[in-house]
Write the structure tokens for this entry.
Amino acid sequence: MQVRKELAVVVGATGAFGQAIVTRLCASGLEVLAVARHAEALEALAARQSGVRGCVADLATDASMAVIAAAVAARMPGASEGDRA
């Protein structure tokens, strides 16, 4: 049986407030899906903070929710749709 950590999703994760939230959540033992517009900034954040996975998405676009949902689903292989809510 595989035990999964809880997952938090933080949008705007590379800004000052977002980074503080990511740090606090990781310190609490959560895995974090960090969402931001720029891959380079997400890579730098993930390099500094253990437990962070980046997701490049711009919430100003309609497609962003599908990108974020796919990133969450990828972290939960084998989960049913009802389990992902």
Remarks:
- The first strand starts at residue 7 and ends at 11.
- The first helix runs from residue 16 to 27.
- Strands lie at 7-11, 31-36, 52-56.
- The radius of gyration is 13 Å.
